[in-house]
Structures are given as structure tokens and as C-alpha cells.
What we know:
Distance between the termini of chain A: 76 Å
Largest sheet of chain A: 10 strands, mixed
Strand content of chain A: 25-35%
Mean pLDDT of chain B: 93
Radius of gyration of chain A: 23 Å
Mean pLDDT of chain A: 81
Shape of chain B: globular
Oligomer: heterodimer
Structural class of chain B: alpha/beta
Amino acid sequence: MSATAQTVADVERLAERYKYGFVTEIESETAPKGLSEDVIRFISAKKDEPEWLLEWRLEAYAKWQRMSEPNWAKLGYPPIDYQDSYYYSAPKLKDAPKSLDEVDPELLQTYEKLGIPLKEQEMLAGVRNVAVDAVFDSVSVATTFKAKLAEAGVIFCSISEAVREYPDLVKKYLGSVVPQDDNFFAALNCAVYTDGSFVYVPKGVKCPMELSTYFRINAENTGQFERTLIIADEGSYVSYLEGCTAPMRDENQLHAAVVELVAHKDAEIKYSTVQNWYPGDENGKGGIYNFVTKRALCQGDRSKVMWTQVETGSAITWKYPSCILQGDDSQGEFYSVAIANNMQQADTGTKMIHMGKRTRSRIISKGISAGRAQNSYRGLVKMLPSADRGRNYTQCDSLLIGNKCGAHTFPYIESQNRSARIEHEATTSKISEDQLFYCRQRGIGEEEAVALVVNGFCREVLQQLPMEFAVEAQKLVGISLEGSVG
Amino acid sequence: MTITEAMAPGVEAFRPAFRQSTNEPTWLANYRRAGVEQFSATGLPTTKDEGWKYTSLRPLAREKYLPAGPGEISAPERMLEGAAQAVFVNGCFSHESSDLSGLDGFVGSFRNMVGDNWIEELLTSTPFASQAMYSLNSAAFVDGLAVKLGNNVQLPRPLEIVFVSMPGNSPGMWHPRVAVDLGCDSAATIVERHISISDGSYFANHATDIRVRGGGRLVHVKVQQEGTDGRHLSMARVRVAKNSLYDSFTLTLGGSLSRSETEVRIEGTGAEVRLNGCYAISGRQHADHTSRIDHLAPGTTSRQVYAGAIDGAARGVFQGHIVVDKAAQQTDGHQMNRALLLSDRAEIDSKPILEIYADDVKCSHGATAGDIDEDHLFYLRARGISAAAARNLVVRGFLADPIENLSNESVQAALCLALDSHLGLERL
């Protein structure tokens, strides 16, 4: 191709790109319904992103278009029309607030109702060091405790801010654990993610407080596409808490988040989740569709990642927080409680890929099914030929409450190393009549008794949660099972 | 659209095996046609099919197998003392080598008994879903064995079904069919043996249909010692009724590629199913044990224990699937796969699945993988046993463990002997 032809082609390409002139549209708060290159450009422009990130999004979109939705999970739902959803909506804010005082009081009230007294937390900073990077419909509206974290050198901000302030870090790590075309939902997220959190803990730093983000879904018909990236540099430690609630909604809402964790040499990341999004009503009307890709790379020697999750919400859960144990002596842990009641369907578990020598993993999964729900554990433990003396222990227990629900276990166990040892155990049983009777005899109501017994069943997992979450999670277990007996 | 146009890739290679029905009852002609259609629609399963994720049939597609003819051999040595023998050479029944005396009226060549109503009923009123390799067998079987016991009968002698492969210069294939119908409160012991008496490439694709009626007791053992260039696939479909017992054991030692698949439907209260087995493989062997047990009635039990020793660059696969239906309250199901990896290139892939729709159940599964326990070796070495002998002893103990679950003691002893001679161990 001659130089002239090349130039003409370039100009044509650029003209094509900008033909919709989103300069005016950028003022709108919501991207037009549906998904197209233009919507992606809108999102990118709206967030004032650099060219490389837009390219990256478009590349992911092109890949996504060639992929098909996975159907191997034990989930049934009507086909999703990806053109019938909004991919961007911002909360009504004139300027980004510099402190909580500038935040819309109505917003703060919503948080109050949901039991997260944001303001109080800041006031109580000295007592309970919890920093909250609240995400309200895809855009960070309030970030607290920045100063204290900055002092320690910890970067904790929205991923959009990180793209602006720390482009090198983002460029280096974004998509390094979950590639663009890892799976259908991850590719979709790459193309349209709106915001999320970014954490970087520098060498040798023990993060001075638990980091926490509350995700909320509010605007109707808005798919939520969060993107989280956490990097723990050599010898550092961070504990990250993620909690979710969503208001009542009739229409199904799509959620496809991606979380990437990178742990360098001797670093440790603890990632805890409580997910109680709207599960739909008892007839299966409404509820969130939750398709999440969470993966950690234990890159450095002796690095450690611990996933703890309490999954009680969503109509559909498709989620497998995983660890790639690359560094020698690295460790991965997965503690999970998944509760499915009424018409909920959950297909969740983990993958532990052992690559490094003497890598260790531990999986403790507790599944509870009630009502007409279907709850599946799906997991993979893989010992590669290089995983000398690798070690895995897996325990999956399922509890059934009532005779209309289902509990399923699909473990994949692959070993290519003779010195590696794998132990897997799974059990399924009914909630103990004896234990219930014991409680009832002592005047404890039936629902409360079930909550007690189930809390006991989940104890091993719940006690892995940070204090702030443990209490909330225990209450949640009881609330989630309301109406499951009698 | 003709069948040829509807064919999935690779099906053409098996076309020579499809039987043209002449002098066969109408139901069988229809049955075969359905088999041809089902197999042609899907072709050989691939690793993209969830049930074949770990076992690739590509080696089958590469070889040009042709249907093999009968051969003459002298009667094989018995595994069980006093057992009757039905001998097949390259999938064809051999009257001369067989000894079925005392079993008249109970056992016969499939070809001769195919007019019987019970065979038609057993094959055509099946509740099982279609499966490609089974369909291929339906389209292609020439002969096999039919075993029919009425109510309250004990098969007078244990029965050995010996499948001898005697491949010629070109790769051969055969698709034998076995049908067993055990009447109420009847009992039988059947040992299937798969042996090879000459080198050469072949593909044996077995299909077995079994019914154990109320109160029946069937001991069904399979010893697979195919030749080094033999590929062995088998599919057994078993229905068990009220208070009956299906007690099975699979010993897998031979073949370059093998898969023993069992599907069991537990249809009556109080029934018990035991699927146990062990396998010792090495070199580049690939051994797959796949099972599915459907608990469909209340108060039923299933027990499954497999132990495997994998050496060289061999690969072991275990897929166990327990399904508990809504109606099957008080189910007690347990499943275990233990694997020893004896070399740096050995591999084990396990997939034990529980799928449960009833709440009052006790179900569990377990899987382990790892090397020989150093402490066990040390114990023996400290007592003056050489390293090699100590290793063999530990492996033998590990593999023999599930054999104890079998209800027939003389079969237990025969299995231990077969295992010992394979491992090169003298009787202790």
C-alpha cells in the first residue's frame, strides 16, 4: 500500500470512529440502550480515558462478538438480550465531591437504610478503621480515609482514577490475570466496564486498615460491570471487603464483574465478599443475574491469597473465584457459603491451579438449598507436572432443607505430579431433625432454629470473615432462609 | 435426506460394520436402523462432550478397522473352578471352545435366541438415553450371549464369558452384545473376561443390557486383559428392582485405550448396587471408568470404591455420577476413587459428581491422588524387604482393597490371583 493510500485509509478509519460526534451525547447521563462500538466509545469518552484503553475495550468487544455464552453450568434462565440493557448510567452529580458533606444527602440516606452508616464510619475512624470506596451505579461517589492510606503509601481509589493517576500500573496489570477473551462474561466486562476499585500496596507495607467497597445497583435496567484490580507488592498485606445489596427490582438485571488479584513475593491478599443482591421473589420473578470472574495470581514465592465468600443473593449466580499458584510455596484458600432459597440458582466454586513447587490449597465449601432452589458446587483442582509436593484439601458439604430443592457437586480433580497429594471429600445431607428438635424444645422458633443450625453448619467459613462482616453475615444467613420451613 | 448425508464426520469409517438385516425379526431391523441413525447423527464422541472430556477417541478414527471373522482356539483356562464357559473369538460365538453343559435353557448364543420375546422387551423398552458407542453396537452386533433365568432359580454353575481377541494382519473390530434377565429371587455369578492371544490392532465395542428383578442377586465381574494394541469400550446398562442386589467388580489391566462405562437405574425400594474396581496401568495405557447411578426409589443404597495404580506415562480417568431423584428419599450413596501415581509422567483425572433432588439422603464422595506413602515403604524395608518388593506389596495392598467388597469369596480369590500375577507377585 502506498503512503497516500495509507493516509486515506487512516483518515477514513478515524472518520468512521468519530462519525457519531459524542461531544453532545457526553452530557447525557445514560448511554443509549444496547451494545455497540459507539456505546463503548461513549463510555470511554465519558470517563475521559486514554486511547490505549479504548483500543483495549474495542479489542475485547470484537472478541466477545465471536464468543458464545457458556451453557455448561447447571443454570436455567431465559436467553439474555444484550441489546436490551443500558451499559452506562451515572448518578446525578454536578461535581465530584471532595468530602462526604458534598455527597447528595438522599444517597447517604439510602446507605443508612441499607445499614451502612458511611458518615458514622468516618467519625468513628479512630475506632473502626474501615475505608469505604462506595460505588453507586458504576461511579465512585465518595472515598474516605485517603489521607491515612496515602501516609502508608497504599493506593486505594476508583479504577477510573487509577487510569488517570497511575496509568503505568493499570496498563501493566489490567487483564494480566483474566485475559480479555477468558470467557464470554469477562470479555463483555472488558468492553463495557464502568468503574470499580483499584488497590496497590507497595513493597513491605501492611495495609493499616481493612479496605471495603459497597456495591449498589440502583438505576433500573442498568447492567453493572465492575472491574477490580488489587496488587500486593513484595512482602505486603491487604484485606479487602466487598459487600453487596440491591433494592427491589422486577426486571432481571445483568451483572458481570471481573476481579483480578496479583500477589507478589511474600505478599498476602485476603478478599472477602458478602453478596445479598435481590434474589427475585418466591416465584422467581426478578432478581439479579450475577456472572462474575474472579481470579488471583499468586505470582511470587510464598505469596498467599484467601477468598472468602458468603453468597446469599441473586437469582442466578455464576462465580468461581480462583487461584493460579505460580510462585513456589504459594498458597490459595477458598471458603464459601452459598445459600439458595425459593427459585434461586447458584453454580459456584473455585479453581486451584498448582504450578509452583510445594504449593498448597484448601477449599471449604458449604452449600445450603431450600425452597425450590438449585445449588451447585463446581470446582477444579489441577496439579501440573511442575507442582512438586503440591498439596490440596477439599471439603464440600451440602445441606438440603425441604424436598423440592437440589444440591449438586461437580468437582474436577486432575493430577500430573506423583509427589502432589490431593484429598477431596463431599457430603450431602438433610438438616438434622435432632438439632432442630433440641432448639424447638427450648422454646426457639422454627425459623430461628433453622438459622442457628445452618449457622453452625457454616461456622468454618463464617469465622474466616473479618469481624466487620462476620456479624452481618450471620444475620444474613437467617434472613436468607426466611420462609424455607413450615 | 439419506443417511449418508446426515452422517457426522468419522462415521463413514464404521459403515462396514453396520449389519444389513436379513432373516432378522422386524423389531430388530427397526432397532438396528435406530442405532445407525443415532450413531450417524453424532459420530464418535469428542473431548468437547462433557462425558468424554478426559478420553479421546481420536486413535479410533485414525485406524481403519474392518469387521473381523471367527477363529478357532482351544478352550481357555478357567478362572473359576467348575465354571461354565461361553467363548467368543473376535466377537463370534465359538461352540467348539465353549462348555455350557448344565446351563441348557438358561444361556445361549444371542443370535439363536434373538427371536425370544424377552430379548425384544429388554432391548426395545429401555429407559436409558441414547449413547453413541452403544448405538454403534446396536447397528453392528453380530452375536453375543443371552442369559435368561426365570423366578426362583440359581444358575447351577458360575458362568465365564470369555472374549478372545485374535486379530489378523489388518485391524479388526467387533461389537458383541450381552443380554441378561434375572428373574425374581434368582441368583447368578457371571465373570466377563477379555483376553488377547495374538498381537495386532483391534477395537472391541461391547454393549450389555441387564435386568435384575425383585429379590434377584447378580454378581457381575469383568476382567479386562486386552492386548497391547487393543482398544476396548464397553457400556453396561443395568436396571435393578425391589430388594435386589447388583454386585459388580471391574479389574482393568490391559488395552492401550479402554473405557468401562456402567449406567445403573435403581428402580425398586431396598435395592443395593455395588460398583467396585481396580486398575493397574503403565506405559502409554489409558483407562477410563465411568459410571452413572440413578436412585429412583426410596430406601436404596449404592457403594462404589475404585483404586488405581498408574505408572509410566499412563493416564487414569474416573467419572462417577450419582443422581438422586425426588422420589428417592432415604438414599444412601457413597463413592470413592483413590489413585496412586507411580511415575513422574503418570496422570489421574477424577470427576465424582453428586446430583441430588431429595432431601432425606446420605450421600458422599471422595477422591485422593498421590504417591506411595513413604512410611509404608519404610516399615517394610525396616523388616528386610527389598525396595522393589516393598513397593509392589504396597501397591498390591492398595489395589486389592476394593476386592473385599465383593460378596462372592471364590471370585475374590480369583481376582487377587489375576492381580498378583499381573504385578509379578507370588501368592503370599
